[in-house]
Design goal:
407 residues; elongated; 8-stranded parallel beta barrel; alpha/beta
Amino acid sequence: MSRLQQLKKVIAAPIKAAIIQHHRRGGAVLFSDTTLRDGEQMPGATLDPDEKLRIALALEEAGVHSLDAGFPASSEYDVAAIRKMVGRVRRCVLTGLCRTTTSDVDAAAAALDGQPSHKRGVSLFIGTSPLHREHKLRKSEAEILDIIGETVSYAAKQFDIVAFSPEDASRTELPFLCQCYERAIRAGATTVGFPDTVGVLTPAKVTRFLTAIQEGVPSIRKALIAVHMHNDLGLAVANTLAGLEAGAHVVQCTVNGIGERAGNASLEEVAMAITLHPDQYQRTAKINTTKLAPLCRMVSELTGISYAPNKPVVGPTVFATEAGIHQDGLLKNLDTYLPYRPEVVGSSGVQFVLGRHSGRRAVAHRLSELGLPSDDATVTRVLEALKFAPKGRMIDDNVVREMARAA
């Protein structure tokens, strides 16, 4: 490093510290989206560089703070995608994933070259649990700590934004985990992540871990805390929210919750939970929720990974109902059976699906919409026809017309 570069680092250090403290004190949750990296690791979810750029721009528009843009050392396709984002994605921080090796850091630096220094970063990881140390890495605790110190320090000479995560943190001994974080922060990490790599935690255990980490890492206030939850027990969103309540500042999510095995915490679900419960979380999401449904549809279309019909926030049945009691209530006031209006997440109106469970009010409403008679006799005729409709038959507008006109 030249003397000029060293001088710039010395000048930048207080500014970087002030930014970290600003985020720690602020009320905003920083969303770090990993759809383009961890999400793409889901079997069948491969994206080409142009598709990644489209998603990155949509995430930026939605208000995401940073993008885990790829793993430069692993693939030329990742490098190509990142190069397309450089200079195009201006409001989000672009980061490259790195193993704790200097060559990976160099690869990320090359891929992100040209992105402003305050909008580029690296995220380093190394396995820390006994399983990873003994079977994957074959290294001692002391060796792991030395690797963390050396590579984080090396990365901090090239990047102002350096994140470090101990892979399989949730199965790592707490004292050693705290040593890893302390070593990383002292070496220059600006964010430290807590990943539940195999998705085994519960919300209560997340709280205990984060409380212990904040008590056991002397330098923890010099860095932001991120949580990265996998969904193997279906608890990724709940665990992420528990992490926020326990003091995390950054949440790492994917659109539609896609990712390895059972996937990751779902960005849209976490964002809506924070939005609907400001009294509980005392935080703001800074996500434009009206962009969520279009974003989720885009990711599903481009990855080829469809979501369940009842997928929270964006599934096609979320704002649809067939039950007569619900339909009656919704026709009187939409808020009777909705947690929020469709337009809040960028969806269109409520769908009143006609079927065996429908009531008179919903049938009359649909007949009126179609310009058909909605007198008691016609409504009764349609209701009877619906009760005896063959299983699986789609009750579309043409079928309703037939039922209404039947003698």
